[in-house]
Amino acid sequence: MTDQPPASYAGPQRVLSGVQPSGALHLGNYLGALVKFARLQHEQDTLIFVADLHAITVWQDPALLATQTREITAAYLAAGLDPAKATIFPQSAVTAHAELGWIFQCVARLGWLDRMTQFKEKSGKHKERSSVGLYTYPVLQAADVLVYRATHVPVGEDQKQHLELTRDIAAKFNHDFNRPGFFPLPEGLIEGPGARIMSLRDGSAKMSKSDPSDNSRINLTDDADMIAQKIRKAKTDPEPLPESLEDLKTRPEADNLVGIYGALAEMTKAQVLAEFGGKGFGTFKPALADLAVAKLAPISDRMRRLMADPAEIDRVLAAGAEKAREVAAPTLDEVKKIVGFWR
Ligand code: AQP
User: Fold this and answer.
1) Which domain holds residue 72?
2) Is the pLDDT of residue 175 over 60?
3) Statement to judge: residues 57 and 177 lie in one domain
4) HSE of 103 in the Cβ direction (CA atoms, 13 Å)?
5) pLDDT band at 5, cuts 50/70/90?
6) Average pLDDT over residues 235-243
7) 154, 178, 166, 190: which is closest to 112 by C-alpha?
8) Claim to verify: residue 221 and residue 73 sit in the same structural domain
């Protein structure tokens, strides 16, 4: 009897995610991604990278990119990632991402990429002038995940569609090369109170690094005064906070601030409303500002201290890259064999 490969992925469970070094991190990145990374490292084998290959899909000043990579690493460490538990590394230091990325470009279909809403948002009116990389970046993202055969991907809600694409690519590869179960179909770890933090200036737009208004976001590097000022200026309506979740749904800005309070205090929105329902923003905003400062100030302090010792950050990244290369190599080797490349 010949050995049949298992019909579904039967390998180890593994967590993989990353953040682009494309600007200062904000509260959305922290709650939607970093908090989850720090929790998951205690539960599963966890790899977290700094997505510098993704960052250059839009222009990055070469004189700043390495420093920005160290800054993201400092944010990871300040948010509680421990290099003894999680593998932390720069994406560009593991060439297997790009190699598998190319193979996946030949697996993914143009029609799949045409449906990606993030490209439409990011390229805006200047599609023809966007880099090809910006268009194909979800394919590289599939390679980021699958080169480690990661089974779980903690991300914010904006990445849901890209994760679906990763699953489609994995399934098509497994099918086309008749290797059922070779790649896992990874699951997103998206749910949670910080999955979609919205802009402080517009409750219908997500908080984003590239929003031209700095008042739209709370940066992890903002000091206490700045955080309080941004929350004071946050767009709201004149009504007091509602008593029920139902009434909150029709008030996007209030909903966002209640969600932020809940995520920072580890409370549900219902619990926040039980405390603040019926009270005006004159009461709620100062309470939110105090909470945000109490939670974020220690993180920015730690980031500053870590950034004062870039050599230590480089040691973390170099050691992480070596470990990541070791994990990725056997999968890439096997893929090359499966595809039929000369060896
Ligand atoms: N507003 C958000 N709420 C919750 N999670 C968010 N994330 C981003 N914005 C929010 C999550 O943060 C992780 C890292 O994101 P990224 O830097 O790799 O890319 P991004 O999603 O493009 O982040 P930005 O801040 O919005 O950058 P720009 O402005 O460049 O587009 C991801 O897990 C993301 O889901």
Assistant:
1) 14-189+309-339
2) yes
3) yes
4) 27
5) low
6) 92
7) 166
8) no
- The burial class, CB within 10 Å (0-12 / 13-18 / 19+), for 178 is exposed
* Residue 290 lies inside a defined structural domain of this protein: yes
201: in domain: no
Lining ligand 1 with CB less than 6 A are: 19-20, 22, 26, 28-29, 32-33, 51, 155-156, 158-159, 194-197, 206-210
Q: Are residues 98 and 226 in the same domain?
A: no
Tokens of 232: 């004071």
Percentages of the chain per state (helix, strand, coil), in multiples of 5: 55, 10, 35
Atom of ligand 1 nearest to the CA of 206: 1
Structure tokens at 42: 């205690």
Query: Tens digits of per-residue pLDDT, 240-268?
Result: 999 999 999 999 999 999 999 999 999 99
Residue 206: phi, psi to the nearest 5? -75, 150
**Which of 158, 191, 210 gets mutated to test ligand 1 (max ligand atoms within 8 A of its CB)?**
158
Ligand 1: distance of its center to the CA of 58 in Å? Answer: 15
Going by C-alpha positions, the residue among 50, 57, 34, 63 that lies closest to residue 94 is 50
Who contacts 305 (Cβ-Cβ below 8 Å, separation ≥6)? none
The residue whose CB lies within 8 Å of the most ligand 1 atoms, and thus the one to mutate among 29, 59, 137, is 29
